[in-house]
Amino acid sequence: MTSQHAPKTAASEFIEIAKTVGAALLIALVLRVIFFQPFTIPSESMQPALLKGDYIIVSKYDYGWSAHSIPFSPPLFRGRILDKAPQRGDVVVFHLPRDKSITYIKRLIGLPGDRIRVAGGQVFVNGKAIPRRPLGMIEDPGAPGVRVMQYAEPKPNGRSYVTFDREPGHEGDDTEVYVVPEGHYFMLGDNRDNSLDSRWPQELGVGYVPAQNLVGKARFIMLSWKGGASIFKPWTWVMRFDASRAFHRLD
Description:
Elements: H1 10-34, E1 36-40, E2 54-59, E3 91-96, E4 99-110, E5 115-119, E6 122-125, E7 128-129, E8 133-139, E9 147-154, E10 160-165, E11 178-179, E12 184-188, E13 209-210, E14 214-224, H2 235-239, E15 248-249
Antiparallel strand pairs: 1-2, 2-14, 3-4, 3-14, 4-12, 5-6, 5-11, 6-7, 8-9, 9-10, 12-13, 14-15
């Protein structure tokens, strides 16, 4: 004895497809809110660690979750759930204090209560200079014809990162002492003379970043395109693809 099934109608097939698509979108949303978020590097301010056109993955669970972990940052709650403090030297994605719709990426230099000063291009934290070891001059990859000195600066975990410095006396090379308020952080770009960051007040730059504005920690470069790729120019997806930077860890 055989069983018979009624043929599917166009309406029922559409409902099944809609359910499948809806479930996939819901899973993607949950993953994006709780675990990871992709982010495209739009500028040269974090060179040489990050280049314009890098497609990175940001971890949400490193710092806990705030309303900014959710797309469009709905004002559902204040503060952070399962809050975990970031570490000095982390590369952090955050929402700009003056405009929550804008997302920035910088390196965290100052923790709450720290006293930060830049003198002669060198960063001082609580009166102690962050050591920097010169690595030689190169051409800035984001500014043809501009020469920059590379410096290696250590992180508390023993690893180091590289910064760019153009010339002495550049704007932002000598600053006042910044006292980081409680619940806030001080950010700098690695391309020190080409970065609008916490050295400038919120009205002009970044200012102090509230803890609730943190989106997550940049973990690795997933893919990269030299100079970026355009969705409307498919040939750039292949011609500008930089395989040497794919799956490169940032910590």
